[in-house]
């Protein structure tokens, strides 16, 4: 039985998300979840609790480093 690996992609550029998703989907056990904004990415992180996050650190609004801090704090709880 294969274990599914959930990967969250958070990037404001659709072409970057699409390219990453296309590469990741070549892995049979991978499931991709996408977010365009930091706020959306953090919300999905809390809902999905992914195994891996590909995060753009230069997001407008809620920036990538701030999201990362929140994600790490969330994992510790």
State the end-to-end CA separation: 30 Å
The average pLDDT score comes to 91
| Order of adjacent strands in the largest pleated sheet | 2-1-3
Q: Helix proportion of residues, in percent?
A: 40-55%
Percentage of residues in strands: 15-25%
How many whole angstroms does the radius of gyration measure?
Answer: 12 Å
In DSSP terms (H or I, runs of 4 or more residues), the helix count works out at 3
Order of helices and strands: EHEHEH
Largest sheet: 3 strands, parallel
- Molecular shape: flat
Show the helix and strand layout.
Blueprint: E1 5-10, H1 14-24, E2 30-35, H2 38-48, E3 52-55, H3 64-76
Parallel strand pairs: 1-2, 1-3
Helix pairs in contact: 2-3
Please characterize this protein's 3D structure.
By secondary structure, this protein is α/β, with parallel strands linked by helices. It has helices spanning 14-24, 38-48, 64-76; strands at residues 5-10, 30-35, 52-55. A three-stranded parallel β-sheet has the order 2-1-3, sandwiched between helices. Helix 2 packs parallel to helix 3. The radius of gyration is 12 Å and the shape is flat.
């Amino acid at each position: 039985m294969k274990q599914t690996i959930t990967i969250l992609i958070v990037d404001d550029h659709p072409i970057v998300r699409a390219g990453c998703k296309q590469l990741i989907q070549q892995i049979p056990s991978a499931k991709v979840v996408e977010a365009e904004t930091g706020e959306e990415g953090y919300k999905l992180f809390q809902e999905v609790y992914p195994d891996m996050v590909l995060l753009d650190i230069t997001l407008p609004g809620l920036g990538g480093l701030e999201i990362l801090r929140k994600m790490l704090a969330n994992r510790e709880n």
